[in-house]
Amino acid sequence: PDARNTALRRNLTARLLDDPLLYWDELSEEELAYLTSQRPHIARRIREATGLIDEVRAEGMAMVDPTGDLSDERLPSEGTEGHATLLLADYLGAQRTRQSLQTLHVQMRHWIDKYSRYWKKAVRENGAEVELCHKALQRLSALHLVEISNHGVQPLPAIGRHVLGETAITGATTE
């Protein structure tokens, strides 16, 4: 049992450090039982070693980087791609259902038309919505907020955390 518990602890710790969010339904029964009983101890060790803070949510557990120093990807982030990613997260979180890439490209074109005077000029080119959408989806996928497949883009539960209210533009400048 000790060797098995050690293996479970190491595996779960590695996953919590590598993945921005660990969904409960992705864990085996054994992993879930172990994490449920040992979460405070595992989280304390990670917090002491890294400064990450544990955040338990209905859908899973995240180790949050309050400074952003240890994160590969951030949401929100600055600039055109950051704003587009946040808008896409908001849209997918509000929809909560699988969306086709074509639908997302149309939505991205709408945002480009709406915000292009504040975004980098390259997004005004024909077809720019495809590349901007691709970059935004890659970031959301890296953050474990969407699953991308041949069937489209499926928002994952944690994306709901990024649903916004109405966007207000105040004193923005172009990049």
Structure description:
The protein has 175 residues and is mainly alpha-helical. It folds into two domains: 2-64, no CATH class; 79-162, Arc Repressor Mutant, subunit A. It contains five helices and five strands, in the order αβαββαααββ. A three-stranded antiparallel beta sheet has the order 1-3-2. The chain has a two-stranded antiparallel ribbon with strand order 4-5. Strand 2 and strand 3 form a beta hairpin. Helix 1 (2-18) crosses helix 2 (29-50) and helix 4 (101-115) packs across helix 5. The chain is elongated. The N and C termini lie far apart (57 Å).
Shape: elongated
The structural class is mainly alpha
**Element pattern in H and E:** HEHEEHHHEE
Low-confidence runs of at least 5 consecutive residues: none
CATH topology of the largest domain: Arc Repressor Mutant, subunit A
- The order of strands across the largest sheet is 1-3-2
Shape-level CATH architecture of the largest domain: Orthogonal Bundle
**Largest beta-sheet characterization:** 3 strands, antiparallel
Tell me which oligomeric state these chains represent: single chain
Please identify the top-level CATH class of the largest domain.
Answer: Mainly Alpha
Mean pLDDT equals 85
Q: Count all strands and give the number.
A: 5
Count of helical stretches? 5
Q: Strand share of the residues?
A: 5-15%
Q: Rounded to an integer, what's the Rg over CA atoms? A: 19 Å
- Separation, N- and C-terminal Cα atoms: 57 Å
The total tally of domains equals 2
Q: What is the helix content? A: 40-55%
Pfam families: DUF2398 (PF09661)
